[in-house]
């Protein structure tokens, strides 16, 4: 099996978004066509913990595939597929419809219903063809499923039992039915029934995964009410706590609602710590824990649920690096890049394989912990994570800055790891203006910005504890890094920041979106900020739908590449917040509203990324074929857009909340209710420029000046 974190190829295309249905629940997801069929030989299937537990599920009625009419997701983990049987020769209409009610969660349940709208009984032969290849997720992703291992299919108590052994790993699946099939042969189940006139027939099909001989009980089981299943209850609780948004801008409201739904579905609950929710990176290929993705996603989602950030921090601290291991780039104090489960026998997160090759997850860990302090959540729990933050700071000083030049660089420990370890982690994601691909060790601009943010966060923890010596040390480190960064990364002749420094400390001089992240954390000198904003909003960078990852005049620019000219919503959310922080209000609004427009065009959901083609050239969003959707930080991006427009920055240890909304002209009214803050639910209303906030403790001061509370530091 290949190393999942080192795949540099192109994933198989799942098809146009309208032609595929993706259902997600925790670490399980299902991809099928509009009819509900999972087609053999495609990247479709039911996946659970990085293994495909269903590679074919095709339904035929009287020997023919029903004609798909419509499909709709009832929620992120369930859908209805409506089809009709083919009309008889000489007739325009059919009297038989087939409905498939599908529920995904630690396996799958499907209720098959045949309804007869005719005036006489109808004979039906319903045939289900099933195949299970137990392919590793990354075999499917790379389009190279194998036939390795021993496989068998048997029958037991009217169910089909599939088993597979590869090396020491054993996987299996049981396909059971609500009523015994008329025929059960090999991997085909046939039901021969008479459907009454104006009546219906139904059966239930249940797929139960088997890991190392143990059956994993599905969330949805035949014979039990679906409304009492765990995902339904969890999503209902999540929905009850979501902030309510009222606005005269339908696009903004709909996108925020969709964001909340998708984030609720992408949460993962560890059986060892069921009270802690973390967030998977995205479907279909990244339904697992990622350090950078989960940290940024939960940062964006503070407006919705700070507990998500707390669960992410607790979980990442649990798996913080302990030793030096070049095989997976582990180092003491380092925060993981990703976790994979492939052959893991346990359902616990602790059973996964961990890779640590990330330059930015470690400082982001400290930044997010500092942000939680500012939001006033569970101060004693936040305090308990300070030792982990200090281990992270030690990693920054010792391993991150291995050559002692004041910058955090990355270089993989072996050819098994990622060559690039920032968020643009494709093999060609970091380029010079000439188009030449940079080689590590590399010090990325945004990584230094995150380190600056981590220094400030740790400074304030020390100051609140009365530890002035530690506070002074981190203040000095922050000031030194900011001065050094603005000296070494700024390209005076070009008017922008280099994306990074190479092994010889030469600037990697391409024009990229990364410098927007530098605005976000405040490391940019004020006298350079205006030029940065102008460059980000120039025609070379701004497509009309958002800011591109790479300028159009740069060598290697490709609008349909992964990191060299595409548009990423999370990237735009960060740089829009940075633009607003430095006072470039109209530029921030322009980016945000362009992204909202893109979401509306894309059916209300922002994908992981999309093409960098200019909006004037092609007046719709051009999708990137293998983009994840839903994807965590893309789903959370609209929540940061909302916070940025509100200019909401709490600093609860000081009894203050900065609030100075800056809505674009297209939004005259905005009310956000149930914002979780200081253990309360706060509401903010903006109407024709008038601002009202409700629910804060009476002793709190609302600061209306339009600046970030940390801007002066």
Structure, described:
The structure is a single chain. Residues 1-17 have low confidence and may be disordered. Helices cover 28% and strands 27% of the residues. The chain contains 15 helices and 34 strands. The longest helix is centred in the C-terminal third of the chain and has 21 residues, at 468-488. The strands form nine sheets. Strands 6, 7, 8, 9, 11, 12, 13, 16 and 17 form a nine-stranded antiparallel sheet that branches. A four-stranded antiparallel sheet has the order 1-2-3-4, with no helix packed on it.
Quickly describe the structure.
The protein is α+β, with helices and mostly antiparallel strands and 713 residues long.
């Amino acid at each position: 099996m290949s190393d999942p974190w080192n795949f540099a190829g192109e994933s198989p295309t799942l098809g146009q978004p309208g032609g595929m249905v993706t259902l997600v629940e925790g670490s399980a997801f299902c991809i099928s066509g509009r009819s509900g069929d999972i087609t053999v030989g495609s990247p479709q299937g039911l996946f659970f913990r990085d293994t495909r537990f269903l590679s074919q599920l095709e339904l035929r009625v009287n020997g023919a595939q029903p004609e798909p009419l419509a499909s709709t997701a009832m929620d992120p983990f369930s859908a209805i597929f409506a089809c009709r049987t083919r009309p008889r020769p000489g007739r325009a209409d059919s009297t038989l419809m087939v409905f498939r009610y599908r529920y995904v969660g630690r396996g799958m349940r499907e209720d098959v219903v045949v309804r007869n709208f005719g005036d006489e009984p109808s004979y039906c032969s319903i045939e289900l063809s099933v195949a299970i290849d137990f392919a590793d997720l990354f075999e499917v992703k790379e389009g190279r499923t194998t036939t390795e291992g021993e496989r068998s299919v048997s029958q037991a108590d009217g169910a089909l039992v599939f088993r597979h052994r590869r090396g020491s790993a054993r996987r299996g699946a049981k396909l059971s039915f609500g009523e015994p099939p008329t025929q059960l042969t090999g991997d085909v189940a046939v039901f021969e029934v008479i459907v009454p006139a104006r009546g219906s027939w139904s059966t239930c099909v249940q797929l139960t995964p088997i890991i190392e001989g143990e059956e994993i009980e599905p969330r949805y089981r035949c014979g039990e009410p679906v409304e009492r299943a765990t995902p339904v209850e969890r999503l209902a609780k999540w929905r009850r706590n979501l902030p309510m948004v009222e606005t005269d801008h339908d696009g903004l409201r709909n996108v925020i609602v969709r964001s909340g739904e998708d984030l609720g579905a992408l949460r993962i609950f560890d059986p060892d710590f069921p009270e802690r929710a973390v967030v998977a990176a995205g479907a279909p290929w990244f339904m697992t824990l990622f350090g950078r993705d989960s940290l940024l996603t939960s940062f964006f989602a503070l407006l919705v649920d700070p507990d998500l950030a707390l669960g992410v921090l607790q979980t990442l601290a649990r798996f913080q690096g302990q030793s030096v291991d070049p095989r997976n780039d582990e180092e003491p104090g380092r925060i993981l890049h990703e976790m994979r489960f492939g052959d893991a026998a346990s359902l616990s997160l602790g059973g996964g394989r961990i890779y640590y090759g990330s330059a930015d997850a470690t400082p982001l860990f400290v930044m997010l912990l500092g942000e939680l302090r500012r939001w006033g959540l569970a101060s004693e729990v936040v305090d308990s994570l300070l030792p982990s933050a200090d281990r992270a700071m030690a990693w920054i000083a010792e391993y991150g800055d291995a050559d002692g030049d004041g910058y955090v660089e990355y270089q993989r420990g072996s050819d098994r790891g990622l060559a690039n370890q920032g968020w643009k982690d494709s093999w060609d994601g970091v380029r010079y203006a000439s188009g030449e691909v940079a080689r590590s060790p590399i010090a990325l601009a945004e990584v230094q910005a995150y380190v600056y943010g981590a220094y400030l966060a740790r400074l304030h923890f020390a100051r609140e504890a009365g530890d002035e010596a530690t506070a002074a040390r981190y203040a000095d480190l922050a000031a030194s890094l900011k001065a050094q960064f603005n000296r070494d990364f700024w390209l005076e002749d070009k008017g922008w920041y280099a994306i990074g420094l190479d092994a010889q400390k030469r600037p990697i001089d391409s024009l990229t979106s990364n410098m927007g992240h530098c605005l976000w954390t405040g490391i940019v000198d004020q006298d350079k900020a205006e030029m940065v904003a102008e460059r980000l909003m120039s025609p070379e960078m701004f497509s009309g739908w958002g800011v591109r990852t790479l300028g159009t005049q740069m060598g290697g620019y490709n609008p349909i590449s992964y990191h060299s000219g595409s548009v990423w919503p999370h990237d735009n959310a960060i740089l829009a917040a940075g633009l607003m922080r430095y006072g470039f209000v109209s530029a921030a609004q322009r980016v945000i509203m362009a992204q909202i427009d893109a979401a509306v065009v894309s059916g209300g959901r922002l994908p992981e990324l999309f093409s960098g083609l200019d909006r004037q050239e092609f007046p719709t969003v051009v999708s990137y074929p293998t983009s994840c959707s839903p994807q965590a930080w893309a789903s959370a991006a609209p929540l940061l857009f909302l916070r940025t427009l509100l200019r909401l920055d709490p600093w609860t240890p000081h009894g203050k909340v900065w609030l100075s909304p800056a809505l674009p002209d297209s939004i005259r009214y905005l009310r956000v209710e149930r914002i979780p803050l200081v253990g309360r639910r706060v509401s903010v209303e903006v109407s024709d420029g008038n601002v009202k906030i409700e629910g804060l403790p009476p002793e709190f001061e609302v600061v209306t000046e339009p600046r970030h509370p940390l801007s002066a530091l």
